[in-house]
Design brief:
This protein is an all-alpha fold and about 90 residues long. It is built from 3 helices and no strands. Helix 2 runs antiparallel to helix 3. The radius of gyration is 28 Å and the shape is rod-shaped. The termini are far apart. The relative contact order is 0.15.
Length: about 90
């Protein structure tokens, strides 16, 4: 029975791993976020959500009485700061 042909240039797995070039990753050298970053980020998003929910449930009277629709701006602003923090989280 004829023997099958061997592939030209076939190398063993050990030879292939030795020849593999170690390339730097795009995240090499980036600093990690401090340990407080993620809890503050999530807390700001939740506080902003709570302010907006309270605003709608109280018919624009609370959480800060007297400033009416600015409560919505404050709630969305706090949540936006939390979402912007997600872009710097590593």
């Amino acid at each position: 029975m004829p023997e099958s042909r061997k592939r030209k240039g076939a190398k063993s797995r050990a030879q292939q791993t030795e020849e593999m070039e170690v390339r730097p990753s795009w995240v090499d050298g980036m600093k990690l976020s401090p340990s407080w970053w993620a809890p503050v980020m999530v807390t700001l998003m939740i506080i902003g959500l709570i302010i907006v929910v309270i605003y709608y449930l109280s018919s624009a009277k609370y959480p800060i009485p007297g400033i009416t629709h600015w409560n919505l701006v404050i709630g969305l602003g706090v949540a936006l700061i939390g979402f912007l923090m997600t872009m710097r989280w590593r």
